C-alpha cells in the first residue's frame, strides 16, 4: 500500500470493533458524538490485539453519514460514505504503510499526506489518515509528518498504529493522544475465538499469551506443521542429535516464525528453571522436553541463548537481511551445546 492509495484502493478490514475493545470503542463514540475528537490518535500495543480492526471501525464511523449521535453504534454500512468505503474508494481517506513488509515509510508518501490535509474534504466531512506501523517512519518522514500533526486544520483525524510506540519519534508521539490497547481477560475474547477456532481456542489463546488475533494466526495449518517440526527438532537435539544435520526439518520455514516460537519456549523454560513449576507454560505439552532441557543447562546460559534469539529477531525486524540458514544453524548449535553441557 502506498500514497497512491489516496484516491482509492483502501480496503478496510472491519466496520465494527472486536468484542474485547468495547470500553475503548465506547470512549471513542462518546468523543466523536460530542465533537471532541482529537486530531491524532495513536493505537498501540503488541501485534495480535486487533489494532487494525479498531482503527478501521473508527475510520468507518467517522466517514459514515448516519451514525453520528448514536452512542456505541458502528458505521451503518448503508449510506453513501459507507458504500464508498466498502468499494475501497473514499476520497477523504488516505492510508500509508511501507511498500513492503519490514521496510521504512519514505518521505514521498508523507508529502502527499501533507498535501491531502491542506485540501478540504471532498465529501464535506472528515479527512482521515491511517498510518502504520508508525515506528516504520524514518527521521525525515517523521519530521515531515510533524508539520501536519501540528497544524492539521479542522476535521482531520490521524490514526497511527504502533506495535512498538517507544520506537516512534517522541515529537510525533507527543502530538498524538495515546490509546494503548491492553491484553484482554480471556473471558472477553474466548467466545469470539471459539467461533474462529472451535475447541482449540483456549489452548491457542494460552500459546499466544492472551493475544486473540495472534491465537487465530497460530491456528492455521502451516503453524501447526511448524510447531510439530520444531518439537521434533528439539526432541532430536535433546537426544544428542547433530544440530546442523537436524536443521533440514525447518527448511523453507520463515525465520521470524521459528524465532518467535524459540523465544516463547525459552522464556517458558527459564521461568520454569527459576520457579520449578510448570503452571505458566504457554504450551503445556512441551513440559517433558523443557524439563529435560532445564536439567541439562544452566539458567544463565539459557538467558544468553534467549538474548541471541531476540537480537536476531530485532535485526530481522529492522530490515537487516541475515542469511536465514546461517542464523538458524548458529542458533541450533548453541541450543545443542547447552543441552549437552
Ligand atoms: Zn454509513
From TrEMBL:
Pfam families with a match to the protein in the record: DNA_pol3_delta2
Molecular function in Gene Ontology: 3'-5' exonuclease activity; DNA-directed DNA polymerase activity
E.C. numbers: 2.7.7.7
An example Gene Ontology biological process: DNA-templated DNA replication
Reactions catalysed, as given in the entry: DNA(n) + a 2'-deoxyribonucleoside 5'-triphosphate = DNA(n+1) + diphosphate
InterPro entries linked: DNA_pol_HolB, DNA_Rep/Repair_Clamp_Loader, P-loop_NTPase
Keyword annotations from UniProtKB, A to Z: DNA-directed DNA polymerase, Nucleotidyltransferase, Transferase
GO cellular component, one term: DNA polymerase III complex
Gene3D superfamilies for the chain: P-loop containing nucleotide triphosphate hydrolases (3.40.50.300)
Group of enzyme by EC: transferase
Keyword flag Lipid metabolism: no
Protein name listed in UniProt: DNA-directed DNA polymerase
Organism of origin: Cobetia crustatorum
